[in-house]
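A further point concerns the way the authors explain their paired sequence and structure data. An entry of this sort, consisting of the sequence and the corresponding C-alpha cells, reads as follows:
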Amino acid sequence: SAATFTEAKFLNPAMTAQFNSIKAGKTLNFTGARFAGPFDFVAAEAVGPVQFASVVFGGEASFNAMAVERHAVFGPLGTNPPTRFHKSADFIASRIGGQLDLAAARFDGEALFRGANFQRGLILSWRPGGTGPVQAAEFRAKVDFRNVQAAEGVQMAGVTFHDQVAFDSTKWDVPMAFEEVRFRKGASLTRAAFSQGADFSTARYEGTLDLTDSNFPHTVRC
C-alpha cells in the first residue's frame, strides 16, 4: 500500500537511510524530508507515484535502477523550496513509466542519469501558473545523460550546467528545445538521435558544443 515519510528527519550523517529494493503498491511520499547522510533507493519499485518534493539530501543519493510505473516527482510544490542534492545524485538505469520531474532542483555534486528511460518525459524547469518566470534546475558539477531515452515531453528551459555535460548516444523522441540553456563548460552530444528535430538557437555556450555523428532527420536550429 502507500507509505508516507513527509517532513521526516534522518539526522545522523554517518548512517545510510536504506530503502533499497523496497516495493510499494501505491504512493511513496517523502515530501519535505531531510537526510543528513547517504540515501539508498537502489532497485526500489513503486506502482504509484513517488514524491520527493523539497527534500534535502545531505549525503550521496542513489536511485540506481529504481522502477516507478507512474511519476517520480522532485519538483517544487507550491511555494515550497526546491529539492537539493548536496552530494552526488545517481539515477543510472532508472525506469520511470511517467515523468521524472526535477524542476528547479539543485545539484551540488555529480548528477548521473546514464542509461535511464523516461517514458513520459523529463522535466527540468517549469513556469508557475504557466506564465510566471521560469524556475529551472541548476547543475554545479558534471552531468552524465549518456544513453538516456525520453518520450512525450522534455522541458529544460533556463537550465544551467556549470560543468561539463554529456548527452552522448541519447534518444529523444520529442522535439528538443534548449531554450536559454546555459552550458558554461560545453556539452557533448555525439551520436545522439533527435527524431523530431532540435532547437539550440537561444542556448548559450562558454565551451564547445560537440554534435559529432548525431542524427537530425528533421529541422535543427542553431
User: Anything to note?
Assistant: The radius of gyration is 17 Å.
